[in-house]
Design goal:
This protein is mainly α and 74 residues long. The chain has one domain: Up-down Bundle (F1FO ATP Synthase), CATH 1.20.20. Helix content is 88%, strand content 0%. It is built from three helices and no strands. Helix 1 packs antiparallel against helix 3 and helix 2 packs antiparallel against helix 3. The longest helix has 30 residues. It is elongated and about 60 Å long.
């Protein structure tokens, strides 16, 4: 296998983190909305967890993108 082909395959695998981040963000907001609709009085207490989960999931996707760029352009 040529080195360029291996770089493209590695970058593609690293970009799977972006797909996982998108799915994770949807699950986080969906679970929060479902919980808030079932118990509106507890929604305010869970908002911190919502924002923390969103930030960590988004960071995972961004790290995957950075790793993909490092693989492609190094």
């Amino acid at each position: 296998m040529e080195a360029d082909a291996a770089k493209y395959i590695g970058a593609g695998i690293a970009c799977l983190a972006l797909l996982g981040a998108g799915i994770g963000i949807g699950n986080i907001f969906g679970s929060y909305l479902q919980g808030a609709l079932r118990n509106p009085s507890a929604a305010a207490g869970q908002q911190t967890n919502l924002l923390l989960g969103f930030a960590l999931t988004e960071a995972t996707g961004l790290f995957g993108l950075v790793i993909a760029f490092i693989i492609l352009f190094s």
